[in-house]
């Protein structure tokens, strides 16, 4: 299969610069040719439940007659209506304290707001984006991060400035690309981010100072259509700095933990869009099969995967969210207990259903 060129940063990892990377103009504005890997992986539990439900509904309708059939059809229609028109617009503000044993005292209490997967161009997407920004700005985060998939359609790029100009934070606004950004026109998106003072971190980092302490904030290229490089992202940086990674796809987390990051913020999965107790997510995209939603402990690193703000206008049991994190310094013994709990269960215990057989190594295609 012929490889198509991808976006490359024409810059060093110099932390003093306040501008985003200059981009090559060779990146195609069309989708890459599809390879043979599946774009989505569907849960076998959902498939089994669907088959069993169809059989039971048929049996109930046969023996219960028309009233039962109409009741089942009505319940299905109501659920579908809610999933298509109500839940996709019910954005929740998820506030999370993240505790670290070795957090510098100057970073204690630092707040970070995350906006992920705006997917501008989908139904409800612009309304959702502005509602999410309203909620986030009301919390006055010190840093705002955008973890990919800003747009869903090429036509939406022209309206992207209406969203970007609203984003501001005392310690800066930072972004990484997602696969849909590449598919719809990453060079134009990169230009708009720079024009609005948003620093695009593609395999590079920034050093942020707060109250005498220093934070290394790094970002990597998209796992699906880019060339993520953790070594390049932290090149030349002191090893002792507290490190946070922005990555659109969460499944790079195992590598990030090995590379010495303390926290990774990701999106991409949308939590599976549809999830019910006992069944978990209906489906997950490539590079999001291992860590589906919420808070995980990956080695000594915290990982948080946002459900995102828009995307396919279908959600059930998985409402969109905007995220606010506060970093906290804790005692060693408290941290050990919290880490053990997260390693055992995550925040919801669903991701294991999508793990590959080799759970000890990074998930790869």
TrEMBL record:
GO terms for molecular function: metal ion binding; UDP-2,3-diacylglucosamine hydrolase activity. Residues 344-353 have a biased composition (Basic and acidic residues). Residues 340-365 are annotated as: Disordered. The chain crosses the membrane at residues 42-62. Gene3D superfamilies: 3.60.21.10. Its cofactor is a divalent metal cation. It holds the Pfam family Metallophos. One of its GO terms (cellular component) is membrane. Belongs to the metallophosphoesterase superfamily. This is Metallophosphoesterase. It comes from Chloroflexus aurantiacus (strain ATCC 29366 / DSM 635 / J-10-fl).
């Amino acid at each position: 299969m012929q490889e198509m060129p991808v976006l490359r940063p024409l810059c060093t990892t110099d932390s003093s610069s306040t501008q985003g990377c200059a981009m090559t103009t060779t990146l195609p504005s069309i989708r890459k040719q599809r390879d043979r890997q599946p774009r989505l992986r569907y849960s076998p539990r959902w498939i089994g439940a669907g088959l069993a439900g169809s059989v039971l509904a048929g049996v109930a309708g046969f023996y219960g007659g028309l009233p039962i059939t109409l009741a089942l059809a009505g319940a299905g229609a109501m659920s579908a209506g809610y999933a298509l028109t109500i839940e996709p617009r019910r954005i929740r503000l998820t506030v999370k304290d993240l505790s670290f044993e070795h957090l510098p005292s100057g970073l204690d209490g630092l707040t970070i707001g995350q906006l992920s997967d705006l997917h501008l161009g989908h139904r409800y997407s612009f309304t959702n984006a502005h509602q999410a920004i309203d909620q986030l700005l009301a919390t006055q985060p010190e840093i705002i991060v955008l973890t990919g998939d800003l747009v869903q359609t090429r036509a939406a790029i022209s309206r992207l400035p209406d969203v970007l100009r609203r984003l501001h934070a005392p310690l800066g606004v930072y972004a990484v690309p997602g696969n849909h950004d590449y598919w719809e026109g990453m060079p134009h998106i990169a230009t708009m981010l720079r024009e609005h003072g948003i620093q695009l971190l593609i395999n590079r980092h920034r050093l942020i100072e707060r109250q005498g302490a220093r934070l290394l904030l790094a970002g990597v290229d998209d796992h699906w259509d880019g060339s993520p490089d953790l070594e390049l992202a932290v090149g030349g940086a002191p090893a002792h700095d507290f490190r946070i990674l922005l990555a659109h796809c969460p499944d790079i987390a195992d590598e990030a933990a090995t590379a010495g990051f303390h926290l990774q913020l990701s999106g991409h999965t949308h939590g599976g869009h549809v999830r019910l107790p006992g069944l978990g997510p209906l489906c997950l995209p490539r590079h999001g099969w291992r860590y589906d939603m919420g808070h995980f402990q990956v080695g000594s690193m915290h990982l948080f995967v946002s459900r995102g703000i828009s995307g396919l206008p279908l959600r059930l049991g998985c409402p969109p969210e905007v995220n606010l994190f506060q970093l906290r310094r804790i005692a060693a013994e408290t941290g050990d207990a919290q880490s053990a709990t997260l390693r055992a269960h995550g925040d919801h215990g669903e991701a294991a259903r999508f793990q590959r057989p080799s759970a000890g190594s990074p998930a790869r295609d």
